[in-house]
Amino acid sequence: MPSEISPPLIDIAHVRKRFAVKSGHQTALEDVSLSVRRGEIFGIIGPSGSGKSTLIRLINRLETPTDGTVSVDGVDLARLGRAELSALRHRLGMIFQQFGLLSSRTALQNVAFALELARQGTARSRLDEAARWLERVGLRDHADKYPAQLSGGQKQRVAIARALINRPDILLCDEATSALDPQSTQGILDLLLELNRELGLTVVVVTHEMEVVRQVCDRVAVLEKGRVVESGAVAEVLLRPQTEAAQALSDALSPPPVARDGLVRLTWSGDDPLGAALTGLGAQLRLQSGQVSALKSGPFGDVWAAIDGPDRDAVLARLRAAGVQVRGQ
Amino acid sequence: MTGLTTFFAHIDGFEIFRATAETLGMVAGSLVLSILIGLPAGIGLSVTGRSGLSPDPLIYGILSFIVNVLRSIPFVILFILLIPVTISLVGTSLGVRGAIPPLVLGAAPFFARLVESALREVDRSVIEATQALGATRRQIIWRALLPEALPSLMAGATVTAIALVSYTAMAGVVGAGGLGDLAVRYGYQRFQTDVMLVTVVLIIVLVQGLQMAGDALVARFSRK
């Protein structure tokens, strides 16, 4: 676990971003502050138009803030000159929804491209290193194919290898799985988790899919209309959503049943508390809807259930005592 | 047989060969120079344009204005207007040499616009990803934009070469020599229909050949 005391690797403080449009300006981000710790996977989630892509693009200065500061590893990005910015970007990998691969280069040459831009090694050594990275992302047999000959998931793997070959500390993912089918999405998410675990890579993930946050993120910020409305550990935000936006996200994971009269919604983080709560009491619990799934931090349950019997209140009391959120009784 | 020989009575093999060589020389020479001038101009238009790498309305406005002016003057008139400039540049306004400056000034702006649109068609996500990899502006242009646009650039060069064939024919009317000159002096002014026919066929063959060569190059470099 990343230490709480270490300074944040990425620090965004009171950022506002306005774009000039025909009728004056449009505010994309308003007083956004958040920090990302070294070694964590941080999610930024929100509907389209919420400003999340603008937010992640501040981190490698593809966008500059109108007000406020963005710093990476203690360095204020606004102070960087052109050469320093290039150097910083070599240390900050980024992948995109549309992959951004050069169609005129093979997979291998695309990966080597990043070393070429950073003026690292010789032509030979760059290709050797690129081959190692392609193998790392599981594409050894596709090295000589052009992007047009690869599937979406394979293209994103090439993009990941290219983003990581300069050994960055941070990988930024802007809707990296949004153009992929469920199976490829799963493959990419597993790869991100593996890279995070094995290389200690810090990952920032922008997505509109709660499923992505559920599977890979340690912490999450919920963005709505340019503001961070909620942020914290994923389990915490799902367990005690404070805003409608966060509630909607947790509902997206466990859609409430249509008929929910007399049902209670039980939400917990950690091991399943239901069995223990019923032991020795005169009550039955019937699950109607919902799911128990694995967050990065462990199991997480969100279910709708009917609880009947003389000891119903005692069961509910036990559940609350065990840390279960009980709603809608 | 005699009918055919009579019909082609005015055909002088050497003249035709010389005229073809002149036309080829004018097209080749002016194509190379048009690319050398049009490519940087087109890159400039694309980079300084509104959605370019570093938008600069002033530079874009100036470049665009020059290109528009040169492109709006009909080629024959451009040729005549440029005679003093041509003479000061190459010493004559006649022949292949005299034709090159106006041909280049006519074709380079045309090619520049084709370059601009070829570069604009490069996928934005590619440019953005290249920027995110820490590329300098020069690296983005030389290592991402131009290689990605290569097939379109070759198609643009093909279109320009074919436009130059038609320009050289017009230049022939005002003293540049080549197949156009032959067609006008013999075919038109002396009513030698056979000469007209042969030159037209040769021009068609030339255009066909250029298009086929261009298409082959585009296919060779296309990866989409």
The CATH homologous superfamily of chain B corresponds to MetI-like
Into which percent range does the helicity of residues of chain A fall?
Answer: 25-40%
DSSP helical segment count of chain B: 10
Oligomeric organization of the protein chains: heterodimer
Strand order of the largest sheet of chain A: 6-7-8-3-9-10
What summary fits the major beta sheet of chain A?
6 strands, mixed
Low-confidence stretches of chain A: none
CATH architecture of chain B: Orthogonal Bundle
What's the layout of helices and strands?
The complex is a heterodimer of chains A (329) and B (224).
Chain A: E1 10-21, E2 24-36, E3 41-45, H1 52-58, E4 67-72, E5 75-76, H2 82-90, E6 92-96, H3 107-117, H4 123-136, H5 152-164, E7 170-174, H6 182-199, E8 202-207, H7 210-216, E9 219-224, E10 227-233, H8 234-239, H9 244-253, E11 264-269, H10 274-278, E12 284-295, E13 298-308, H11 312-321, E14 325-327
Parallel strand pairs in A: 3-8, 3-9, 6-7, 7-8
Antiparallel strand pairs in A: 1-2, 1-4, 4-5, 9-10, 11-13, 11-14, 12-13
Helix pairs in contact in A: 3-4, 3-5, 4-5, 5-6
Chain B: H1 2-7, H2 13-48, H3 57-72, H4 75-81, H5 83-90, H6 95-120, H7 124-132, H8 137-176, H9 178-188, H10 193-221
Helix pairs in contact in B: 2-3, 2-6, 2-8, 2-9, 3-6, 4-8, 5-6, 6-8, 7-8, 8-9, 8-10, 9-10
Structural write-up:
The complex is a heterodimer of chains A (329) and B (224). Chain A is of the alpha/beta class. Chain A has 2 domains: 190 residues, P-loop containing nucleotide triphosphate hydrolases (Rossmann fold); 74 residues, Alpha-Beta Plaits, CATH 3.30.70.260. Helix content of chain A is 33%, strand content 30%. Chain A has 11 helices and 14 strands. In chain A, the strands form 3 sheets. Chain A has a 6-stranded mixed beta sheet with strand order 6-7-8-3-9-10, with helices on both faces. Chain A has a 4-stranded antiparallel beta sheet with strand order 2-1-4-5, covered by helices on one side. In chain A, strands 12-13-11-14 form a 4-stranded antiparallel beta sheet. Chain A is globular. Chain B is mainly alpha-helical. Chain B has a single domain, classed as MetI-like (MetI-like fold, Orthogonal Bundle), CATH 1.10.3720.10. Helix content of chain B is 84%, strand content 0%. Chain B is elongated, with a radius of gyration of 21 Å. At the A-B interface, α2, β6, α3 and α5 of A face α7 and α8 of B.
